[in-house]
Amino acid sequence: MPMPYYVSPEQMMQDKAEYAKKGIAKGRSIIVMEYADGVLLTADNPSASLHKISEVYDSIAFAGAGKYSEFENLRKAGIRHADLKGFMYSREDVTARSLANGYSQSLGTIFSQEIKPLEVEILVVQVGVNGHPNEIYRISFDGSIIDEKKFAVIGGRSETVQTFLKDKIDGQVPSLKAAVALCVSALEQTPNQKLAPEGLEIAVLERQRATRKFRRLSTADIKQLLAS
Questions:
Q1: How confident is the model at residue 201 (pLDDT cuts 50, 70, 90)?
Q2: Cβ–Cβ < 8 Å for 70, 118
Q3: Cα 119 to the chain's mean position, in Å?
């Protein structure tokens, strides 16, 4: 009689983590960075129709790296959650922190209970208004949540991009032009080649904009910001 196949829980979790990390690393990186008038979101994304960055609510944005169909489902669930909470209570009750906690619970449950984990890493970002600081939350495939400061990187060879940015960022909060140039330079470290403006997806959460803070930058906007 054959012996039953046994895998320890520790080994199973380790295998799941390796599987998820490989899937996330196949994609291209996304950077979120604070700048003088808000928060900048920059993605290496040659697709004009499949967005990695999007608006979730008035002052909140979402970015996802890894398997597109999986983080797109998470994005839609976040929008439904935000709309429902804003409708039932008030718009001010919809916060990046509550959304990030919800995502953390969902991802953590899937990672621990399902055979296949989600191959995703996401960012939930809220621009601070009325003297409140900006909020940047990075949520990993296993549900772990990190409260980031100044900038955050997900997807692709994120460690290479992070190392580049740590060396370049000083105590100053950059202008939008400087932040865009810095993010694009950081993204160019991984393919080791120049990225065309047409292959970039860039959006901002602008503190001074009325109600909806999210604005997607056009290729013309990007070219103008990158012009020396």
A1: very high
A2: yes
A3: 14
